Amino acid sequence: MNGGGTQLRLFQPRNLAFWAALLLLIPGLTVTYTRFRDASELYTEAFVDGVVWFSIYALAFVWLFNRLDRFSSIPARVKVAVVFVGGLVVTNGIAAPNNNAFRSILAKTGGIEFANEWGAGLTAPWSEEIAKLLPVVLMIGLAPRVMRSAFSGLIVGAFSGLAFQVLEDVAYTYQMTAQAFGQTDVGINTLILRSFLGLTHWPWAAVAGAGLIYLIGRPAEPPRRILGGAMILSSILLHGIWDSTGVLTGGASYAQLLYLPLSIINLAIFVWAYRMTVAKERGWARALLAPEVEQNLISAAEAEAAVGSRRQRRRHLRAAGHRRRARHVLESIDDLVTAISRAGGADTSEVRQARSEIVRLRG
Amino acid sequence: MTHPRPDIVDDQSSVPSVRGDDVVPPDQRIAGFDRRTVWPAAVLVIVWAVWAHLMPWIDDRIAVDNPIVAGDVIELGGGTFAFDPAVGWELVDGVLAGGDQRSSLTATLVSGAVTYKVRTATWNGTDDELLDHTLDVETVDDRLLARSERERGEVTSTNGARGKVAFIEGHERTVIAVSYVFSVSPGEEGGEAVGLGVAITVSGPSPDVEDRVEDINSMIRSIR
């Protein structure tokens, strides 16, 4: 698959992106550690509740992203590294100081009233959307073979955005507790509210991540600069609208209701970007499976279903005589694709094992 | 079965190898580093430098120019509380009475190196408990070494509300913390009275705080 045969090596002394990452890592982790140490000391309950709840909450999205990345194009180690950098370094070490400084500059130059109304909408969208792209850029430097297509940008961006979102939600939980003189119930209300507003940072970052790959182009993804730029701008724009609902509606009481249609729009654009970027993944999977079809290991219909959309798979399973067995066969074909791409096209024991599984499951 | 090596796994002449022992092709070396990794590294460092350093540096260089003039009143919680800020202090955060701004639960004023912060929220404990919490936050936030509470006393506002005040001497700065707790009677619908706390923190280098003690005292006592 697009990251086929590749793995992320953490120690790459000849790679400048490795040294740049180290440079960012140390101050970023220090800031995050200091904030978390103080928060856990002062607002222990709210902090622990936030960390535990949003970690569980994030797992649901991790499960979703892994399902979307059906052929495991992005190695687990890349995903872990992206979550680590996106959460522990980017959120507090890069985005937060810029947000605070720029909002303060707005207040000093445009007045407190202007900054209160427009500060968030004029700061966070560009500051955070660009910052959330840094893990995508880092992975292009550290694992270029993994970052070969817009689909990789989409998945890596989604993980980066999710990590950012979780760290921000934890921060909101204890900050609201802090504003209420340490009363935990106020923080818990924030935690519940933020849980309902979960379709924000990750879809924006995923769409921007795919957009970045289109913008710059990769060996397997010719540049589509207008499309890429538009995708990044769409995330910045939607983030801006999200952060400005109050002022855009003149402080109307229905302003908060707008989060529902805006969440749907965020999700719809993500789904559109997923469908567009996954097409290349499917084409590659189809090419990998062609010899297997020729050798009659799998049928053409099975190959099409395996690389097809969820709907195509469902249709294939409905038509199958033994649905449970057919589903297992499709899943073992997914594994075969992963194995072949990981082996770089070679006939390894993992590939042979994956093939024998298909035969075994067919019964 | 032999697989063709479709473009899925080959065609990587233009990207660095991530396998093997980190060998960089000779034509891609620059001082021993992989030339192709220059731009991702540059993007990371530039964004980090601008976001985490340049922007805060610019912010530090822009002075606040929002001075309090005679007659200004600061409102907290949409008019639930108000106080008279000292003339000449700069308003950094907060809402002046009479404007059409959204309400705010906080206000911050600065004068030189001294910061005067006020915050309000519901509070059902005592004023001593609120003062303890405020001092805990100051101690942890700024790592005041060996929190040495010099004295704790009572403060009475100009309209008779009683609160608590404490002084802390840190190594480099002095903190004055004040707490008031008000009981707000329920509206016509009935219900229990709600406690509302007001916490004030004044912080700055000791001589600067001493120079402004009259301003600070009058602001603390003007809460209503």
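The radius of gyration of chain B is 28 Å.
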